[in-house]
Structure formats: structure tokens, C-alpha cells
Amino acid sequence: MSNIEVRIADWHKDNTDLRRIRERVFIDEQGVSPEQEWDSLDASAIHFLAIEDGYAMGTARLLPDGNIGRVSVLKEWRGLKVGEALMHAAIATAEQRGLNQQTLTAQVHAARFYERLGFKTISDEFIEAGIPHVDMLRVSE
User: 19: Cβ–Cβ under 8 A, 6 or more apart, which residues?
Assistant: First the structure.
């Protein structure tokens, strides 16, 4: 990982990359149904792409209410701080838009990752798409 760039993506122009990453991570690997993965919120979200040498390997989205979601990194790129770069971009964009509280629904196994970025668990564990999750909140200082 030498030249990772995170940029705001265009839902229409970058749709192929956004869909490829999310389909591979959520639908293929985790067994989430396409009906659960694709929702009407994508059209109004700010999407982010992590790219190295022209290849997109990670994505996330920020909703108008400050909710960050669909954070996904292709398996071969995990552990290289791609997810962290995506989250920093999403948090910074939220703060620039005056969204000083960011929320997310984290898979339980990833909660520690989000805690390192300042998120705190605010719910009991629950099942979503067959996977244990918790709701988390981050308040900007």
C-alpha cells in the first residue's frame, strides 16, 4: 500500500467499481441478499472510493443524516489501513457538512476498529442480514 487515494465517488459514473466491491464483500463473502444490500439511500449518499494505481479496492458511504455505512474493502487489501483511510474521509466530509455526530451500524467483529476511530457502542447486539451488529456513535469535538 503505497499510493492509496480516497476520493468522493460519483454514484453513476463510478457505479461499476462501487457495486463490484460491495457485491464481493457483502453478497459473495458474507451472504447478504442483494435486496438487503441495495437500497434507495445510495442515490442520496456521498460515496467514497479507495484507489491505488487506478484500481478501486474499497468503498464507504455517508448519508445526509451523518450515518456512515457500507464500509467494505476487498479481502486482499484488508489489514493495509484502507478501511481507516475510508473512515477518515467519511468523518472529515461529515464534519465539513456540519454533521458533528456520526453514526454507524457495525458488525460486532469490527466494533473495535470503529472504537479506535472514536465511536462508542450505543446499543445491545442485534442481528441484521444474519450477522451480529451494534449501533455506534461518534461525536466530533
Answer: none
| Domains of the chain, start order | 5-99 (3.40.630.30)
Q: What does the pLDDT profile of the chain (141 residues) look like in tens digits?
A: 468 999 999 999 999 999 999 999 999 999 999 999 999 999 999 999 999 999 999 999 999 999 999 999 999 999 999 999 999 999 999 999 999 999 999 999 999 999 999 999 999 999 998 999 999 999 987
The one-letter amino acid at 123:
S
Residue 128: closest CA among 39, 60, 24: 39
Nearest alpha-carbon partner for 137 in 105, 103, 112, 88? 103
What does the block give as the cell for 134?
Answer: 451494534
